[in-house]
TrEMBL record:
Molecular function terms, GO-annotated: 5'-3' DNA exonuclease activity; 5'-3' RNA exonuclease activity
Signal peptide stretch: none
Region entry Disordered, spans: 1-26
Domain of life: Bacteria
Name listed for the protein in its UniProt record: PHP domain protein
Database matches in InterPro entries: PHP_dom, PHP_domain, Pol/His_phosphatase_N, Pol/histidinol_Pase-like
Length: 288
């Protein structure tokens, strides 16, 4: 199908965060920022929650944009975190909901434990983190970072992540997250389209064996356009995507003021958007 320049798929950015997780703006403001940057197809992909979908859908359609409701599901492989983007799944699917409920509740326990540990050395309490987290939002290390900034302990999120919040720090606590195959299968079973986020970062590629198992679990593709992807891992994945005719996306991973990433700094082609829509069975895109 030849997509029209102004039709569904035009200038698409399929990875944006709001304050329902670790972005700094409410979903309607995220949609407005995306529109200002010329985007016409977007996805809201907060970590482990769909609670921003309704507000995002209203804002996107009033701005004339197409919205693919989405999520960035936490997973982990051995010590490293793996993020699985899911698009157009059924938000009421029981299996996926049980998984995200479990991850989110572990995130609260984990953030409280990290607050206790940090609080032994710095002026920081759990309440300071709560104050940086929108009601009902998925809490994460970025909110602890914001509390540390507010307390004057660090200058910005980046400094917090490089030190106090790093996995190598004594303050670090791991969160519960499913293995990547389970995460991919949960999205696919909910009728969604699973794509591995920032798959070629500095930690390197996931092992071939794991990628094979994820593809068997219905993994649709990879987010090849992302500022954290680096060579030579990126080139290897590009070849895999071409060879197996997988879906390739490009996105900003916008977090408002929480990261320098700008809406539309990477984009997804209209034909890839069309493939995602055609493959999904869990929910419909929201058209303007
Ligand atoms: P968590 O899932 O709670 O362990 O926190 C990881 C999240 O923090 C990721 O999803 C990123 O959005 C964010 N993050 C990681 N590194 C940085 C950084 N250097 N600056 C800002 N945000 C970061
Ligand atoms: Fe994030
Ligand atoms: Fe991510
Ligand atoms: Zn993200």
């Amino acid at each position: 199908m030849a997509a029209r320049a102004d039709g569904p798929g035009a200038v698409a950015d399929l990875h944006l965060h709001s304050d329902h997780s670790d972005g700094t703006e409410p979903p309607a403001m995220v949609m407005a920022a995306a529109h200002r940057h010329g985007l016409r197809t977007v996805a809201l992909t907060d970590h482990d929650t769909t609670s921003g979908w309704t507000e995002a859908a209203e804002a996107a359609s009033s701005l004339g944009m197409t919205l693919l409701p989405g999520m960035e599901l936490s997973a982990k492989y051995e010590w490293r975190s793996v993020h699985v983007l899911g698009y157009l799944f059924d938000p009421d699917d029981a299996g996926l909901r049980a998984l995200t409920d479990r991850i989110r509740s572990s995130r609260v326990t984990r953030a409280r434990t990290m607050a206790d540990r940090i609080g032994r050395d710095y002026d920081l309490q759990w309440e300071d983190i709560v104050a940086q987290t929108a009601v009902g939002a998925t809490v994460g290390r970025p909110h602890i970072a914001d509390a540390l900034v507010q307390k004057g302990v660090v200058r910005d999120r980046g400094e917090a992540f490089a030190g106090i919040l790093s996995p190598h720090s004594d303050y670090y606590v791991a969160l519960y997250a499913p293995d990547p195959v389970t995460a991919v299968a949960a999205i696919a079973d909910a009728g969604g389209v699973p794509i591995i986020a920032h798959p070629a970062g500095r930690a390197g590629l996931l092992p071939d064996r794991l990628v094979t198992r994820m593809l068997e679990a219905d993994l649709a593709g990879f987010e090849l356009g992302h500022r954290e992807n680096v060579e030579p891992a990126l080139g290897t994945l590009e070849r895999l995507v071409r060879r197996r005719d997988l879906i390739a996306t490009g996105s900003s991973d916008y977090h408002g003021l929480g990261k320098p990433n700008v809406p539309g700094e990477n984009t997804t082609s209209p034909d890839m958007v069309a493939r995602i829509i055609a493959r999904a069975t869990g929910s419909e895109p929201v058209y303007p």
